[in-house]
């Protein structure tokens, strides 16, 4: 068996084209603010790609890059200042943050209505209560990638490899709503191999190259590889692509799989938030007759 490739770049192009059209219709320039701490190579790649894509479709982009040893209060202040800006509709704190910083606290500082990643606890709470709530960009992007296979999520035995509940919890909520059976395992779990042997769908986001090999997989597995690590000047995923692609049914490459779609969905969410704000402004703005009456 040779796996079919899920072309994330093609999916991302479609999303960005739709987003550009949406931006042209709202008479407002959406703004994205990105905060990055340290010099993690994979994070630098993602921030650059966000900037490039934003410029192509008409999203205003600003980034604040802080040294590795920046104290937590400085990061919290930067987030708070972006929360207060009317020209910034979406905020991203680029993860992972350096050790010693409280990631949960910093993410909680983001205004939930500006959190385009969708990791804020308030958004997770809304998602758990409202099936129609806005999905985190990564979750929605993964759904679009899975849709490329033509398969149904209902009944899929799914394994999520993740060391972070910030990532795995909203994804698990969404998948279970679609009828998938979901097991979450850590990258260092002794049960990893046995879990993978049963998986119809594998989603991995650990950042450990070669963590998953073809020998560990059930034939026909769909693989969505979120992991990114720079090794010898190139970006690789958690999955050993050469061996896995001989066993899997479908697989996302790294690069060119999940990454471009994540960036595209993030910008799509920025445009959505700007559109929501524009609608709110228009709704609250008194019409000419009302202004005349007020003047009287």
Number of strands: 11
Per the CATH scheme, the topology name of one domain is: Rossmann fold
Oligomer state equals single chain
CATH superfamily of one domain: NAD(P)-binding Rossmann-like Domain
**Global structural class:** alpha/beta
Helix content: 40-55%
CATH architecture annotation name of one domain = 3-Layer(aba) Sandwich
| Main CATH class of one domain | Alpha Beta
Largest beta sheet, briefly?
6 strands, parallel
C-alpha end-to-end distance: 78 Å
Number of helices: 11
- Rg calculated over all Cα atoms: 20 Å
Order of strands across the main sheet: 1-11-8-7-5-6
Q: Could you characterize what this model shows?
A:
The longest helix is centred in the last third of the chain and has 27 residues, at 258-284. A six-stranded parallel sheet has the order 1-11-8-7-5-6. Strands 3-2-4 form a three-stranded parallel sheet, sandwiched between helices. A two-stranded antiparallel sheet has the order 9-10. Helices cover 45% and strands 16% of the residues. With 296 residues, it is an alpha/beta fold. The mean pLDDT is 92. Among the domains are: 27-111, Leucine Dehydrogenase, chain A, domain 1 (Rossmann fold), CATH 3.40.50; 137-251, NAD(P)-binding Rossmann-like Domain (Rossmann fold, 3-Layer(aba) Sandwich), CATH 3.40.50. GO terms for molecular function: methenyltetrahydrofolate cyclohydrolase activity; methylenetetrahydrofolate dehydrogenase (NADP+) activity. Belongs to the tetrahydrofolate dehydrogenase/cyclohydrolase family. This is Bifunctional protein FolD. Residues 141-277 form the Tetrahydrofolate dehydrogenase/cyclohydrolase NAD(P)-binding domain.
